[in-house]
């Protein structure tokens, strides 16, 4: 079951840049205000053409609205997620986090059954505002794959 407003963020490990660089999800957001969004996969069409580029383009709007941390999560290995972020111009703006073992994805209840399409489970597409270590909002696409409520313009209004 996906988080509700007021639920605490889970204490799970993600990876940034390489397998040795572990990131505590809980510590990354700490007591800060931030935005989290997740995609089914790096370098996939909707994720690469619309989702991530929208957050990169709206980076200034997100920070002006109060976001101190912006993070993107994908169920891929950290090398792939890093290369994808670099190709999209996210470096220095968005924490590109890999969830290769689905720790965060399972903890949030947003596993996307993509076995037939991609050979493995992935994450549903969602966005969230996190404030003070708790979810303020959590927006999950109805079919897990759409591009509506998880996009940057929608989340800006929730900050």
Give a nutshell description of this structure.
This protein is of the alpha/beta class and 159 residues long. Helix content is 31%, strand content 25%. The protein has a single domain, classed as Glutaredoxin (3-Layer(aba) Sandwich), CATH 3.40.30.
| CATH architecture classification | 3-Layer(aba) Sandwich
Q: Give the total of domains.
A: 1
Q: CATH superfamily, please?
A: Glutaredoxin
Radius of gyration: 14 Å
Give the strand order of the largest sheet, numbering strands 1, 2, ... along the chain.
Answer: 5-4-3-8-9
CATH topology assignment = Glutaredoxin
Instruction: Please mark out the parts with pLDDT under 50 across 5 or more consecutive residues, or reply none.
Output: none
Distance between the termini: 23 Å
Q: According to CATH, what is the class?
A: Alpha Beta
SS-based class: alpha/beta
Strand content: 25-35%
Average of pLDDT = 93
- What is the global morphology? globular
Active site: 47 (cysteine sulfenic acid (-soh) intermediate)
Protein name: Glutaredoxin-dependent peroxiredoxin
Enzyme class: oxidoreductase
GO molecular function, one term: thioredoxin peroxidase activity
